[in-house]
Amino acid sequence: MRLLTLTIVLSFLCCTVKAQTNYIRLSTSKGEILIMLYDETPKHRDNLIKMVKNGLFKDQEFNRVIKNFVSQGGELDDTILTREKLHPQSPIERLEAEIRPNLFHKKGALGAGRNDNPEKSSYLDQIYLVEGKKQTDAELDEQEVKKGIKFSTKQRQVYKSIGGIPRLDNDYTVFGEIVKGLDIAQTINRVDTDTNARPLKKESFEISVLSKKEIKAIAKP
Question: Which domain holds residue 81?
Fold first, then answer.
């Protein structure tokens, strides 16, 4: 039964990977993580690629790590909102939400951070990697009722077998997923932190965009 479940999940993930055209590399203090960016979320995909090429993610760190939840990097909420308060005439630019029912918060998903705005629009320079935990059918049923959404059979299989954070679905934009280095992301999520969820030891990362040649190499069996 476990083998059947794993086969279904891997089949689902592989189908997703083949459809995408852009990948990034997170070179972290714990190792390398490769992430596929979804074509279904072009604004978030293009914004991240632009930010990377402009050098924004050259010297970054995971500055908020919540075990079994997320590992967040980029600019912190407090810094962004403080700048916005200081210059109310020039509100901070945000990205229009690109929430898709089939792109969900499974373990290894890449999401865009945001504040509590009604449009659910994202910050330009804050990202997070989903860790989460395995879900039960009862927990998924509860989230469906609370959020007024419906998980597909495939989504349920993924949430029950590898885990994630279904309570974030339909509220935050998911725009990519880890295709290599899930164990590295998990290691980062387990580091020791202070009371503000900041790692006690700096966990740095740098993002680069993969070339077409590198992407082809990933696609090879």
Answer: 2-219
Number of domains observed in the structure of the chain: 1
How far is Cα 116 from Cα 155, in angstroms, rounded to an integer? 26
The predicted structure's pLDDT at residue 221: 62
Quote the radius of gyration of the chain (alpha carbons, Å): 17
In the chain, where does DSSP find H-type helix? 2-18, 42-53, 77-86, 137-147, 153-161, 182-189, 212-219
Mean pLDDT of 152-178: 98
- Spatial contact of 190 and 30, defined as CB atoms under 8 Å apart: no
Is the model's pTM score more than 0.85? yes
pLDDT digits (tens, 9 = 90+) for 37-94: 999 999 999 999 999 999 999 989 999 999 999 999 998 887 877 777 777 777 778 9
Q: 182-195 in b/e burial notation, b at 16+ Cβ within 10 A?
A: bebbbbbbebebee
Is the CB of residue 44 less than 8 Å from the CB of residue 56? no
3-class DSSP state of 9: helix
**CATH number of the domain where residue 88 is located:** 2.40.100.10
CA distance 103 to 212: 24
Strands 126-130 and 204-209: unpaired
Q: What is the pLDDT of residue 91?
A: 75
Rounded distance between C-alpha atoms, residue 186 and residue 218, angstroms: 21
